[in-house]
Amino acid sequence: MEGLGTSHAAEIARLEDELARSRAMAERARQLIESAPDAIVVVDNGGRIVLINAQTERLFGYARAELIGQSIEMLVPQQLRGDHVGKRNAYIGKPSVRPMGTGLDLAGQRKDGSQVPIEISLSPLGNGDSVLISAAIRDITERRAAQAALRQARDELELRVRERTAELEQANRALQTEMEDRAAAERALHQAQKMEAVGQLTGGIAHDFNNLLTVVMGNLQLLARRVHNDPTAAELIKGALDAAWRGAELNRRLLAFSRKQRLAPVPLDLNDLIAGMTSLLRRSLGEHINIKLHEAVDLPPALADVTQLESALLNLAVNSRDAMPEGGTLTIETGAVSLDEHYAALEGDVKPGAYVMLAVSDTGCGMPPEVVQRAFDPFFTTKETGKGSGLGLAMVYGFVKQSGGHVKIYSEPGTGTTVKIFLPIIARPAGALPADAPAPRPDASGSETILVVEDEDKVRELVCRVLGGLGYRILQAPEGRTALALLAQEPGIDLLFTDVVLPGGMNGPEIARRARQQRPDLKLLYTSGYTGNALLELEAIPGEFRMISKPYRIEDLAQIVREVLDTGPA
């Protein structure tokens, strides 16, 4: 009996020891749960909360007593509670240790109704009917903020990279444009230097040749006096003198090209000069050439040598006659123009400023680019042997340059030729408005879409830069097929600005005709090196049209574009 009592006491002691250890373990577990950085929520298989820690109270704003015994859906956003019940029951049916909602944006609902982004890890506790589910809930607000800040920083970095890339691309384009402009300027300078060198050479030769001709012609005249009784000898001497005079005329043209002839520049009215030459021109050109005059009103006076200008005009008219063997129309036009810095930079040897323009246009066969390039070279001619000296245009070039002016040829095979002479305008009296300082104009900016069709790269780039800088949206094409493709792709084009003469078998008027079949309201503006009156004679453009002639000032381009856009279809 005494042994039984001793055994019973030992068992009680063992049980008390195990109970103490269990309580200690439970206390350590409670402390671990309470000190956990995540909110810990334990629910039974009915979804009721049976245990929470202090972090749960802090995260959701509830007191412990408010949550114990309540449904876990109390912590789920209102709109998601119905779905959550089904998902909870499915998990309790097959519990496992896993994160919940991987790849999804989970949120818990606080007592005040606000939501907090969370991350949940689930763990089953116990077996059988007494299964419990432990949920470790982590507040990821700071992580989300850090991720958002990281995304923003990444986006800003990408934006800066794109901006920097765009800046580099723009700088590269600007450098490319500058290099191309410099190359064009170098070509223009080379051409000017070549013409200057040839001029110096021909001037020196002409000077020496004049001395030789003086001796030859003087001796022939003296000899003629001695043999006046010998008809045969007199006839031979006359033939020699005629040839010497022709040589002197060629020499005069060489001196004109070399800019070493004596000029007597005076103020003159181009319209009056042309009117005084009309009869001579009609006799020189013949009845098969129709002459049309288009004289500007209130034309300012030019400064030039009258005799040399008359000779230049006659030379141009005769060249035009030779280009129209079957007949045609010669158009002579005058006007006041201003050549700006952009045009001067492209040409290389032009001073920006105000000029009086004399344009001579024909409806002849025209010239290819390689012929235009050499047209002013002395002794260069495309005429048959014996039909021309090749000094006509060279003389015009030398005279104009010596006069401080500029001369430009516009020509395409099959579309005739226009030669424009620009002579300096006489300075106006003090207080008068200079020709290159027009009155203030209304705002010429806009936001419309303009299609620029121009085969000359430099001109097209300049136009796009100018109009783009005014706020217009610019599309561009170097020829007709590309232009029509853009017109089909871009229904929002407001204005077609096209050169009249284009390569590829489709000119500006044909582009306009096809475009207006689909878009009758499309605004239209032409440009050309030919004058508008010359184009009428070529019948290049049917009906009425708006046009700006090359060269033009960028202010004039901006103004006429705005005018065309503000009016009905041209």
Automatic annotation (TrEMBL):
Residues 154-195 form a coiled coil. The keyword Transferase applies. One of its GO terms (molecular function) is phosphorelay sensor kinase activity. Residues 449-565 form the Response regulatory domain. Its EC number is 2.7.13.3. GO terms for biological process: regulation of DNA-templated transcription. The modification 4-aspartylphosphate is found at residue 499. Transmembrane segments: none annotated. InterPro entries: CheY-like_superfamily (IPR011006), HATPase_C_sf (IPR036890), HATPase_dom (IPR003594), His_kinase_dom (IPR005467), HisK_dim/P_dom (IPR003661), HisK_dim/P_sf (IPR036097), PAS (IPR000014), PAS-assoc_C (IPR000700). It is an enzyme of class 2 (transferase). SMART domains: HATPase_c (SM00387), HisKA (SM00388), PAS (SM00091), REC (SM00448). Keywords: ATP-binding, Coiled coil, Kinase, Nucleotide-binding, Phosphoprotein, Transferase, Two-component regulatory system. Residues 204-427 form the Histidine kinase domain. The keyword Kinase applies. Residues 25-78 form the PAS domain. This is histidine kinase.
